[in-house]
Structures are given as structure tokens and as C-alpha cells.
């Protein structure tokens, strides 16, 4: 098949799971084009991301004359479909609270995307995220008629499904992927009963960097690591309060925060306010090889999220035999269980502090048992090769109408 992957921003440090999916499909003999609205605004650190950037076509980096040529080709060859898509853009704008200008832009992006799919003879267009990339793909489908599908991760799609027109996107698609059973349940809430059969669970997968069995039994120091975008939904500020509680008890440990994002300055101020400069390390964005190294150096990974889908970093840590501390939300309990980690109620400072204390005091035997159990569960559920095979079957079948 000739497949195209489309999302808002690609490649990006937090979108490694998309790259793994593409590479696994290519390994199965498919040609995969990479399309995105824009390129990553920061500096890419991972060599694989840098290579992917060279292979990706970005709508907003397309010279104006070429973009207008794409729009004109679609208007001349498919005037009726283009008019229908323009009406669809205005309907999405109404459900979004009147953001007509934004959706007019999405319409023109869809004209370019439809032209690229025609040019590259795409059999199937797959989108990651049910937000504006799925809007653009739905409109491109109305223009060009190609089959399309999208993967919903959450939590943004679950926070505002009506504003995003999630039900309309499901209705137009060939199929929709949820990354957990919880995610599927949320999609079922907003899909017509007739469209329930379109909604499938395909887990995000991890690749050989994490599948190979060469991890140490346990970390060598009193060290915890949190790998996540520095945003409000990940719970970093609560995590710092928990770290301060443990320091007040006299515990000596290190907490490493890997990632970047809009809360970086506030997190830095909170580290200073709580007197954690000698305890907490902020690394910023690092390469995937360095992410793996940080996990291996830690006793456990901690991710006290307030809202989620199913974080890939949890399966990466567990594949490396590092137990995880996380929260009872979304799809996380489907992966993290008492035999392979610690789950706490989201927002519960005392419970989070207690779980971190248990992880730091855990014996080598307990860490070994949890690590082995976590690796087994991850390999059973999150092998990228099995996930790609499942997607291949879905993409090859006729569109569900």
C-alpha cells in the first residue's frame, strides 16, 4: 500500500511513537509518506528525528506559488467536492464556537493535503490526534475521496469532544484507533451506534531499543526519573511537593525531570522555592538514547499525571525492567498493576509521597520482581511489530460505511 501519515507537527521529541509506527509499516513493505502542518519549533536532538524532518513535507513550509497551484488543481478538478468541504469547514467552525478564520485555514490546508495524496497516489491516509489534523484530514477526504483514519490518544479529545466535532470525524473515517480500552470507551460516547464497529484498539508500540533484553536488574542509586512534557496535565508541580516532603523526612535522593514545555519557568521557580536545587535536575529535551540511559540509571520512573491517554514512556520504562509510579486515570491501569509498579489517586500528594518512598526503599528483590513483571506485560501488549500488523489489516480492508 501507499500510505500517508499526517499530523500537526512532525517530527517532534514527544512523537517518537509515530515514527516507530511508520518505520514498522515500512518494514512490512509499505511506502509511507510523511505529511505535517508544520515542523517542530524547537531544536531536534535525536538523530532519527533529524532524519525524519528531511523526509517530511510540511504544509506551512510549502512555497506560496506551489500551495496555490495545489489549491487551484483541486478547485478545477473537484469543484463540487471542494464546495462540500468548504461547507464542512464552516460546520466544524460552528461547533468550535465560531472559529471561522481558523477553519478557513484548515480548508486550504486540506486542499493542499488532498493534492499531495493525489500526487503520491496514496491508498490510505492515517492521522495522529483527533484535533485539528483530523479536521484537515476529514476535509481532505471530502475533497479527494481517499480513505482515511485517525488515532485518538487523549486527553484533549476527551476534554472537548463536541467542540472538536469528534462524532462527525468518526462518521467520515474508515476507522478510528484508540490506544487503550478506556480510550475506546470515550470514543463510543461520541460515536453514533452505527459507527461503533469502526472503533478499534491498537496499542502504541516500542521498538528494538527497548525490546532487547540488556537492561541491568536495578538502578544503582537513589534516583527517580520523570520523563514528560512540562505541562499542567503531567503533575510536575505536585511531584515537586512530594519530593520536598521526602527531603523534609531526611531522605537523600535525586529526581530527574526530562523534557521541556510551557511550565519550565514555573517548575524552575518552584524548585528554588522548595529548596530542591540539590535534589531536582532539569535536563530539557534529550535524545532517545539518552532517555533510555536516564531510565536505566533510575530505580523507578514516576509520572503523576492529572490527565492522560496511555503514556508511551511507561511502557518504555517497564520494558527496561524499571517499575513505574503513576496514577489511576485513563488507560494507565490497563498497563500498570500492583505487580509491576505503584498506582496512586491523581492529585493525592500523600499517596504520591508514599509511593515514591516505597520505591526508594524497595529492596533489590522487590525491584527485580516488579521489573520482570513489567517487562512481560509490556512485551505482551506493546510490540510495535504487532501493532503495525494490526494497522495494516485495518488499512487494507474496505472502508466501513
SSE layout and pairing:
Elements: E1 2-9, H1 16-27, E2 31-38, H2 47-55, E3 56-58, H3 64-77, H4 79-95, H5 100-119, E4 124-128, H6 132-144, E5 147-152, H7 156-159, H8 166-172, E6 175-178, H9 181-190, E7 199-201, H10 208-211, E8 223-227, H11 236-248, E9 254-258, H12 264-273, E10 280-284, H13 288-297, E11 300-303, H14 312-319, E12 324-327, H15 332-335, E13 341-344, H16 349-361, H17 364-381, H18 384-396
Parallel strand pairs: 1-2, 1-4, 2-3, 4-5, 5-6, 6-7, 8-9, 8-11, 9-10, 11-12, 12-13
Helix pairs in contact: 1-18, 3-4, 3-5, 4-5, 4-6, 5-6, 11-16, 14-17
What does this structure look like?
The protein is α/β, with parallel strands linked by helices. It folds into two domains: 2-205 and 384-396, Rossmann fold; 209-381, Rossmann fold (3-Layer(aba) Sandwich), CATH 3.40.50.2000. Helices cover 50% and strands 16% of the residues. It has 18 helices and 13 strands. It has helices at residues 16-27, 47-55, 64-77, 79-95, 100-119, 132-144, 156-159, 166-172, 181-190, 208-211, 236-248, 264-273, 288-297, 312-319, 332-335, 349-361, 364-381, 384-396; strands at residues 2-9, 31-38, 56-58, 124-128, 147-152, 175-178, 199-201, 223-227, 254-258, 280-284, 300-303, 324-327, 341-344. The strands form two sheets. A seven-stranded parallel β-sheet has the order 3-2-1-4-5-6-7, with helices on both faces. It has a six-stranded parallel β-sheet with strand order 10-9-8-11-12-13, with helices on both faces. Helix 2 (47-55) links the parallel strand 2 and strand 3. Helix 1 packs across helix 18 (384-396), helix 4 (79-95) runs antiparallel to helix 6 (132-144) and helix 5 (100-119) crosses helix 6. It is elongated. The mean pLDDT is 96.
Amino acid at each position: 500500500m501507499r500510505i500517508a501519515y499526517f499530523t500537526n507537527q512532525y517530527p517532534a521529541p514527544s512523537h517518537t511513537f509515530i515514527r516507530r509506527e511508520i518505520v514498522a509499516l515500512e518494514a512490512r513493505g509499505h511506502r509511507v509518506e510523511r505529511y505535517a502542518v508544520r515542523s517542530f519549533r524547537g531544536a531536534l536532538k535525536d538523530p532519527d528525528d533529524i532524519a525524519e524532518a528531511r523526509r517530511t513535507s510540511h504544509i506551512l513550509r510549502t512555497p506560496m506559488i506551489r500551495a496555490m497551484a495545489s489549491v487551484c488543481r483541486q478547485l478545477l478538478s473537484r469543484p463540487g467536492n471542494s464546495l462540500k468541504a468548504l461547507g464542512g469547514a464552516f460546520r466544524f467552525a460552528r461547533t468550535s464556537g465560531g472559529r471561522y478564520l481558523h477553519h478557513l485555514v484548515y480548508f486550504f490546508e486540506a486542499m493542499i493535503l488532498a493534492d499531495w495524496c493525489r500526487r503520491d497516489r496514496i491508498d490510505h491516509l492515517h492521522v495522529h490526534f483527533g484535533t485539528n489534523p483530523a479536521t484537515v484530514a476529514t476535509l481532505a477526504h471530502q475533497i479527494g475521496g481517499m480513505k482515511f483514519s485517525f488515532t485518538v490518544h487523549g486527553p484533549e479529545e476527551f476534554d472537548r469532544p463536541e467542540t472538536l466535532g469528534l462524532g462527525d470525524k468518526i462518521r467520515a473515517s474508515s476507522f478510528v484507533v484508540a490506544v487503550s480500552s478506556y480510550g475506546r470507551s470515550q470514543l463510543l460516547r461520541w460515536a453514533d451506534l452505527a459507527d461503533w464497529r469502526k472503533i478499534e484498539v491498537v496499542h502504541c508500540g516500542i521498538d528494538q531499543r527497548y525490546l532487547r533484553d540488556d537492561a541491568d536488574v536495578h538502578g544503582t542509586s537513589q534516583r527517580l526519573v520523570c520523563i514528560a512534557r512540562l505541562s499542567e496535565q503531567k503533575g510536575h508541580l505536585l511531584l515537586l511537593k512530594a519530593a520536598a516532603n521526602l527531603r523534609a523526612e531526611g531522605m537523600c535522593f535525586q529526581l530527574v525531570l526530562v523534557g521541556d514545555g510551557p511550565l519550565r519557568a514555573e517548575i524552575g521557580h518552584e524548585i528554588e522555592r522548595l529548596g530542591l536545587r540539590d535534589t531536582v535536575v532539569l535536563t530539557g529535551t534529550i535524545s532517545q538514547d539518552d532517555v533510555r540511559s536516564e531510565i536505566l540509571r533510575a530505580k523507578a520512573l514516576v509520572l503523576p499525571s492529572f490527565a492522560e491517554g496511555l503514556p508511551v514512556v511507561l511502557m518504555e520504562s517497564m520494558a527496561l525492567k524499571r517499575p513505574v509510579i503513576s496514577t489511576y486515570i485513563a488507560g494507565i491501569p490497563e498497563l500498570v498493576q500492583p505487580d509491576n509498579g505503584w498506582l496512586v489517586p491523581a492529585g493525592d500528594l500523600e499517596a504520591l509521597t508514599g509511593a515514591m518512598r516505597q520505591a526508594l526503599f524497595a529492596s533489590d528483590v522487590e525491584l527485580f520482581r516488579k521489573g520482570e513483571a513489567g517487562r512481560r506485560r509490556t512485551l505482551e501488549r506493546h510490540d510495535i511489530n504487532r501493532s503495525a500488523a494490526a494497522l495494516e489489516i485495518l488499512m487494507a480492508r474496505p472502508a466501513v460505511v
